[in-house]
Description:
The chain has five helices and seven strands. The protein is an alpha+beta fold. A five-stranded mixed sheet has the order 2-4-5-7-6, with helices on one face. Strands 1-3 form a two-stranded antiparallel ribbon. A hairpin with a 2-residue loop joins strand 6 and strand 7. The longest helix is centred in the N-terminal third of the chain and has 55 residues, at 2-56.
Amino acid sequence: QISLVIAFLLVGLIGYQRIKYNEQQAIWAGLAKETAHQLGTPISSLMGWLDILKDRLEDDEELNAISKDMQSDIERLKDISSRFGEIGSIPKRELMDISEVIHRAVLYFQKRLPNRQKHVEIIESYQNVPKVAVNENLLQWVIENLIRNSLDAIDKDTGRIHIKTEFDSKKKDVLIIYRDNGKGIPKKNRKKVFVPGYSTKKHGWGLGLAIVKRIIESYHNGHVKLLESDSKGSTFVIALPAGV
């Protein structure tokens, strides 16, 4: 009888924890979708005002160039809003060349790196790899989160970020190998880097790498791991099934 009571209590506890977990997931998904909804109105308004400005700035090349950069940033806001809207849903995927997807994410940062105090160079090296079924918006979010983490971790005068793609013919995986020369992650904390809430930054929420893991593993059937990390930098490897 005691064993039955203990078993009953254990089942009840596991069930309760599962219910609480599902509630938390639903709350986060609902919050994300509401954020996307709230962003939609001001973004649409900004696009309208920008169209008016473009009509009046046709003869001013400098201001016209600025308006194009503003248009690019507004499009980026639309993408960000779309990302939040996809949380909690099954995202649409299509076969794409991930090297091109990564390059587009890198281009966005390269235009803004000269405005930072530290000099940071992003070096790309792409092999001819099979296409992968991905959601471009979400995969770019992965790359952006990794780059932002590196920019915070780089404590040297010259920062370097290397991104390359390879094909693992044995496992039929397309690999994204991401390396920076930041200060690295302490050995005792390496198992925590993908845990939501873990952060070494005072202003961080600790969601960047947790989002990376969720996007890769839950939405793309892939894997992500911290391959190595020391005072010379960190290396992450993302594996995505080819042609799936």
